[in-house]
Amino acid sequence: TEQSLLQIHNDLVTLAREAGQMMLDADPTLQPPTTKKNTSDLVTLTDRAIETMILTRLSASHPTIHFLGEETSKTNQRLTPNPTFICDPIDGTLNFIHGFPNTAVSLALAIDKIPVVGVVFNPFRGDLYTAIKHRGAFLTTPTRTFKLPLNPIPRPLPSLSSCLVALEWGSERSGANWDLRTRVAKTLLSAKEDGAGKMVRSIRSSGSAALDLCYVAAGQLDVFWEGGCWAWDVCAGWCVLEEAGGLVVGANPGEWEVELEGRRYLGVRGAKRGEQRGVVGEVWGVMGDG
Ligand code: IPD
């Protein structure tokens, strides 16, 4: 019910703020990070401690809701239609390790594999992004709360060539998603073939897919594109972006309905589902058959 979604939202906000304090209290330079798959796929003790804290607290307060977390999920664990908390204890772990203050705890609730509550908190800026399905998206800074997108409402997007695009690199440096990322990045940064300007104004890669989606929701970036991230990276930011009037679709051409576990996502502010002409269609065009 609406009431219980609000309760869950409030509980996730409390946990996100506590997790944020754990990040601020930690000194990642004192902890040797553990390598997961390669030298840019890292995890710290703080990632694990935060996820344990969140899992313990949520299984006590909401024992019937399932849990999918970046650090505790089992290989091949699949998201089911059951109500499920989706947790990335630190989205932007590399930033956290390097002290680059663009990192966040990302908590969401998905029902029927659709994000219905999203909470993204960056403790280094004190910025809290929240959304409940059908109830709008908000940014709470240390001094005030804003409805998203921020005012003045950003102008509509006439075309990709006026967009600032978030494109993330993940930790893979070979394979299909790597080939796709490098090809898409190169095309987006190129001049148009007809000589009429550039494909996009520029791209940004600031190391947190969750925050990228929130920046698109705010209207500070226009597009988020990534091939190769995971449900826990995007679930909360997805809810925030859609509640701010944006759209999350698949990064694969024609994929208007993307699964939460689809691993290739395109988020666009102010876009409408099914509107093939426009920024979504232009990005799909860049991807080609990729
Ligand atoms: C990563 C970040 C990064 C994205 C990766 C994610 P993590 O999350 O969101 O921006 O490129 O694909 O895995 O590992 O720091 O939680």
From TrEMBL:
CDD domains per the UniProt record, alphabetical: IMPase (cd01639)
Residues reported in the UniProt entry to bind Mg(2+): E70, D88, I90, D91, D233
InterPro entries linked to this entry: IMPase, Inositol_monophosphatase-like, Inositol_monophosphatase_CS
Pathway recorded for this protein: Polyol metabolism; myo-inositol biosynthesis; myo-inositol from D-glucose 6-phosphate: step 2/2
Regions annotated as coiled coil: none
Domain of life: Eukaryota
Keywords: Hydrolase, Magnesium, Metal-binding
Catalytic reactions of this protein: a myo-inositol phosphate + H2O = myo-inositol + phosphate
Biological process per Gene Ontology, one example term: inositol biosynthetic process
Family listed: Belongs to the inositol monophosphatase superfamily.
Protein name (record): Inositol-1-monophosphatase
